[in-house]
């Protein structure tokens, strides 16, 4: 216990010390300094922050649990993300940097009108405050409690442990976001990312060594031969939780929006020192995404191989914790705990910082106080972060955990992703698309998705199952793709009769050097080829 505590505190303090030393001379008195890291982020900081902003305990426990219960088809969340990140680096990031943007709603306000930007900002904040922030805290608390059995260790109830972990992690994460701004968040993400990658890869390696009697390759061979159905990447088993078809419908929409327009993601690229560093950072992160299945999918299959006789399908969320306890040496327990806490912190403080950015730029400065000075904006951002953090920490322990939190999170996000991507793409590609159609799409699209997936789920499913002659439930990602198409068609139709009268003109002088990275296209092509090869080799 002593060694575990020392290693936990040691790594946690190391992250805090590095973040402090790298930012202690920075003056957080301007917009760019606080919200965009002074536009000084380098490639490796961007890459590390992108990875840890996305990955947390809901991936380690939730997605490995899905692989335990189903197949490795869940890897689609990682592999298709790599493809979307290539699009971010080569297409979206150059345009965003050239326009000098801080947020996506800022672009929509300039391209359409201020009302459109405010609606988009409110939608972002709604999904962040009511879904992402509290769910990240709750999933992190549940995951850490499950992994380290804190209830038994301290003799507390699950409710008490959840409250303590939610508020403890939330308060610690808030310190980075409130006092350090984006740069401190990004640096802490990077250090935590190194630890996360090391420990995340170590767990399946040690499991394979154990299975193969000291030879990891023999262990992988044994698992692949004996659990061959688990390695079907297409996910086409009956009643699949992630059927292959969604990769060409809603998954495309989900990944493009999340990785190319999601505020907590693009803000890292917008804080780049120049386009070269931004492209390099995004593409390095895309390469790391190709390693993601080794961390958040393979351990679930290894757990199935080891514990299929003791853990049933209903125990799928216990699969990863059981594997960790079986293979990880006791002296690494503290480091593993610190890395898990760091992963939760990274996602929480990143989303918190992005939420404050959205509020200050697109609501406070745009509507409530247009004459606010840079210092006042930073002050408002800190106040907003405090309010949002307290709200998230208060809501998290009250969320119903009887269902799948990861599935809940994805459904809430999908409510907004399709309409917002439709508005963004049409705004960039078609100058005739009007502000009226954009506002209608932003409001009507989420309403349509909510009606199809939440309010009238059962009759809609019954109708579609009868129409297509299947007993399988239609996946919510198909509805996401459908809503995206409907919003695009609606906006084009409306804009034909009410076209846009004024057009946004990009600034002549970008705020950073726009020289592209000379290896960007080659590395992007490499990532795409690797993704396709992965599906070709593992399709059954």
| Rg (C-alpha, Å) | 23 Å
Unreliable stretches, pLDDT < 50, 5 or more residues? none
Mean pLDDT: 84
Q: Return the string of H and E elements.
A: HHHHHHHHHHHHHHHHHHHHHH
Count of strand segments: 0
In percent terms, what proportion of residues is strand?
under 5%
Helices, by number, come to 22
Distance between the termini: 46 Å
Shape: globular
Instruction: Identify the CATH architecture.
Output: Up-down Bundle
Describe the largest sheet.
none
Under CATH, the topology can be stated as Sodium/glucose cotransporter
Descriptive account of the structure:
This protein has 540 residues and is mainly alpha-helical. The chain has a single domain (2-14, 35-397, 405-538), classed as Sodium/glucose cotransporter (Up-down Bundle). Helix content is 75%, strand content 0%. It contains 22 helices and no strands. It has helices at residues 2-23, 31-35, 43-54, 57-69, 76-98, 104-111, 114-148, 150-154, 158-211, 216-226, 250-260, 263-270, 275-296, 298-307, 319-327, 333-368, 374-395, 405-429, 435-455, 457-468, 476-497, 520-538. 53% of the residues are buried. The model has no long low-confidence stretch (mean pLDDT 84).
């Amino acid at each position: 216990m002593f060694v575990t505590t020392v290693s936990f505190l040691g790594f946690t303090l190391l992250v805090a010390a590095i973040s402090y030393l790298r930012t202690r001379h920075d003056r957080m008195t301007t917009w760019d300094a606080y919200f965009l890291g002074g536009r000084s982020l380098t490639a490796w900081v961007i890459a590390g922050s992108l990875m840890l902003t996305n990955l947390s305990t809901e991936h380690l426990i939730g997605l490995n649990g899905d692989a335990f219960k189903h197949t490795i088809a869940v890897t689609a969340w990682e592999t298709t993300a790599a493809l979307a990140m290539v699009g971010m680096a080569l297409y979206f990031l150059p345009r965003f940097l050239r326009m000098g943007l801080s947020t996506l709603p800022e672009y929509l306000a300039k391209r359409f009108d201020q009302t459109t930007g405010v609606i988009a900002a409110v939608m972002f904040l709604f999904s962040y405050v009511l879904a992402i922030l509290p769910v990240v805290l709750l999933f992190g608390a549940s995951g850490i409690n499950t992994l380290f059995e804190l209830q038994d260790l301290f003799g507390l109830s699950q409710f008490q442990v959840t409250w303590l972990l939610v508020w403890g992690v939330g308060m610690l994460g808030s310190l980075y976001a409130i006092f350090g701004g984006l740069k401190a968040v990004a640096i802490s993400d990077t250090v935590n990312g190194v630890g996360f990658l090391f420990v995340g890869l170590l767990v399946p390696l040690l499991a394979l060594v154990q299975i193969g009697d000291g030879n990891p390759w023999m262990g992988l061979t044994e698992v692949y031969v004996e659990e061959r159905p688990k390695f079907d990447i297409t996910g086409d088993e009956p009643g699949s939780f992630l059927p292959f078809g969604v990769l060409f419908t809603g998954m495309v929409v989900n990944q493009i929006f999340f990785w190319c327009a999601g505020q907590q993601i693009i803000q890292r690229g917008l804080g780049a020192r120049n386009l070269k560093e931004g492209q390099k950072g995004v593409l390095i992160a895309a390469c790391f995404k190709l390693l993601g299945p080794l961390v958040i999918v393979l351990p679930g299959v290894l757990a199935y191989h080891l514990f299929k006789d003791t853990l049933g399908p209903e125990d799928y969320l216990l699969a990863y914790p059981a594997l960790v306890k079986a293979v990880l040496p006791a002296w690494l327990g503290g480091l593993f705990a610190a890395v898990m806490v760091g992963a939760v912190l990274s996602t929480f403080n990143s989303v918190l910082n992005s939420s404050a950015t959205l509020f200050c730029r697109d609501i406070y400065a745009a509507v409530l106080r247009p004459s606010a000075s840079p210092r006042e904006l930073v002050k408002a951002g800190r106040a907003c972060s405090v309010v949002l953090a307290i709200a998230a920490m208060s809501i998290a322990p009250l969320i119903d955990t009887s269902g799948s939190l990861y599935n809940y999170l994805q459904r809430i996000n999908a409510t907004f992703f399709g309409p917002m991507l439709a508005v963004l793409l049409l705004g960039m590609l078609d100058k005739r698309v009007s502000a009226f159609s954009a506002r209608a799409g932003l409001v009507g699209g989420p309403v349509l998705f909510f009606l199809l997936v939440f309010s009238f789920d059962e009759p809609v499913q019954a109708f579609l199952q009868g129409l297509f002659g299947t007993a399988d439930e239609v996946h919510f990602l198909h509805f996401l793709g459908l809503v995206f198409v409907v919003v695009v068609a609606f906006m084009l139709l409306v804009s034909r009769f009410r076209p846009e009268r004024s057009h946004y003109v990009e600034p002549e002088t970008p705020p950073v050097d726009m020289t592209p990275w000379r290896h960007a296209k080659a590395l992007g092509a490499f990532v795409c080829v690797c993704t396709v090869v992965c599906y070709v080799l593992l399709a059954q």
